[in-house]
Prior knowledge:
Elements: H1 2-22, H2 52-61, E1 64-67, E2 79-80, E3 93-94, H3 95-103, H4 108-116, E4 121-124, H5 147-162, H6 177-189, H7 200-214
Parallel strand pairs: 2-3
Antiparallel strand pairs: 1-4
Helix pairs in contact: 1-2, 1-3, 1-4, 5-7
Amino acid sequence: MYHHLCANVLAIMSFTLNRVYTEWYRNKGYDFTITSSTAYDHKWIYGRNIFESIDRIVDELFENYLSRPDVRQPILTQYCDGHQVQCRNRGWMTQWGSKALGDQGYSAIEILRSFYGNDMYINVAEAVSGIPASWPGYDLTIGVTGEKVQQIQEQLNAIAKAYPAIPSVIVDGIYGPATAASVKKFQNIFGLPASGVVDYPTWYKIQDIYVAVTRIAELQ
């Protein structure tokens, strides 16, 4: 029972962290990080009973998440009940299936790998903090420098591989005319006002397209 619960807790936490890491909903224009609907994410009901055994496992594993070699972000470990609700896709973990494997003596990582593949690993977070929002809180325009500019430059270059009309830029953390021109072309392609300035809507559209072209919100 312990290993089965550990496997499920790890899958749930990694799924949630992927939603946070990719800012999946903010990129779609919503002002929240995760839903409370089993149609999309997990269901959480305020005031429901808490089981001590599960509470203890969550505390024990709180800094852990699931990833693959050379993949920085937590994996979107999708799962389903497997009895009352069947999984929509192959490669999802079934909760009843994980219980059966646990009853056979499988460890947590063996259970997870049997569903998600042998390249799944348990990682430990370097730090735990509040829910982040990547938007810097100010527009990026010519003359602005720093890590946020560098982030946008790196993301634009990744997007440019899928959309060659977008000019690649030098990643130097300096928002110069070349970066503004690249942003302006991005805005043209994706139906935003072509100002060449990374405002709030442009920032999250860049995040949205970056997540899509790099596939970091997918299981594989």
